[in-house]
Amino acid sequence: MKILSRPILRQFWEREDCKDSKQPLLSWFKEVEKAAWKSPADVKKLYSSADFVSDGRIVFNIGGNKYRLVAWVKYSLQLVLIKWVGTHQEYGEVDVTTVGLSSTAKPPSKRGK
Question: Which domain holds residue 45?
Fold first, then answer.
């Protein structure tokens, strides 16, 4: 699989409170990079705890479920796009169906101030 958005992982593991996520995230990256998923069933063979959300989005448990990673998968292109990574607690505060979309990543407008 070709994985896009690797800098998201690096930015996360460089956070002071998430330094222990580096090895689990690198392991996930290397495993997925070697995979050749053709369907969700192939993902489940490697990651039985993966949750399939919608529109090709999958939630992975990382580091013994201490962290979560949301990715979009396009099987026909052998492509994985990392949408979001965060702590288990942060995961409860995001909408996994929209997190990582450019329209939700824009800072609030300052018009009218």
Answer: 2-98
CATH of residue 75: 3.30.2310.20
Cβ atoms < 10 Å from Cβ of 20: 11
Q: What is the pTM of this model?
A: 0.86
Could you tell me if 93 and 67 are in contact, meaning their C-beta atoms sit under 8 angstroms apart? no
pLDDT digit string, tens, across residues 34-83: 999 999 999 999 999 999 998 899 999 999 999 999 999 999 999 999 99
- The answer to whether position 103 is within a domain reads no
How many whole angstroms separate alpha carbon 35 and alpha carbon 99? 24
Environment class of 62 (CB within 10 Å of its CB; exposed 0-12, middle 13-18, buried 19+): buried
